[in-house]
Design brief:
alpha+beta; about 25% helix; single chain; binds coenzyme A; 4 helices; 7 strands; about 150 residues; seven-stranded mixed β-sheet; Aminopeptidase
């Protein structure tokens, strides 16, 4: 079982870039990740299995911490369908209402990324709207997805 390791270090950034490259058409470079690590407005978590990074999530804190926005999330192909992606999103859900006093998690997903669309639907995300040509460089549209914490009042 892979474990969620919150403490991303500078030494991890190149590996996270490579995992991103193996997962997505658009991924972050180490220098982008470094800026995000240092600006106090981002969360970067890694998943490790036998000391190998097999998954990651990069998210930003928006609207004074009310919303966590997933900017990138990936699990290496050979480690998929074992609950690791869910583990990464669960970590963000856990933070809502604790560290961030937040209510929502949002993200954009490529219209033809059917695996991710199913994955997020399974995790309780709803499609809010279609953003035509959101990914201009790819010439593709995206869905804006949102997960809302249920009020316990
Ligand atoms: C999307 C992604 C992160 C899912 O990671 P994962 O570790 O395989 O997901 P999990 O094992 O936690 O799956 C959780 C649930 O999502 C759904 N799901 C995941 N992959 C699925 C697939 N290929 N087809 C249908 N449903 C799927 C299932 O309901 C699954 O529950 P189950 O295994 O009990 O049926 C992974 O496929 C990935 O890295 N894809 C490439 C990068 C990407 O698209 N990232 C998202 C956009 S930012």
């Amino acid at each position: 079982m892979a474990k969620l390791d919150v403490a991303v270090t500078i030494n991890d950034l190149e590996i996270i870039e490579n995992v991103g490259k193996a997962c997505l058409p658009i991924y972050y470079r180490p220098q982008d990740l470094l800026m995000m690590m240092m600006d106090g407005k981002h969360l970067i978590y890694k998943l490790t299995s036998n000391d190998q990074i097999v998954g990651f999530v990069v998210a930003s804190l928006e609207d004074d911490g009310e919303r966590i926005h997933i900017k990138s999330l990936g699990v290496l192909p050979e480690f998929r369908r074992q609950g690791y992606g869910r583990q990464l999103v669960d970590k963000l859900k856990e933070l809502l209402g604790h560290q961030t006093n937040g209510k929502y998690i949002t993200l954009y997903v490529l219209e033809d990324n059917f695996t991710a669309v199913k994955f997020y639907a399974r995790l309780g995300f709803k499609s809010v709207k279609k953003m035509e040509n959101y990914y201009l460089s790819l010439g593709k549209s995206a869905y804006f997805l949102k997960f809302e914490v249920k009020s316990t009042d």
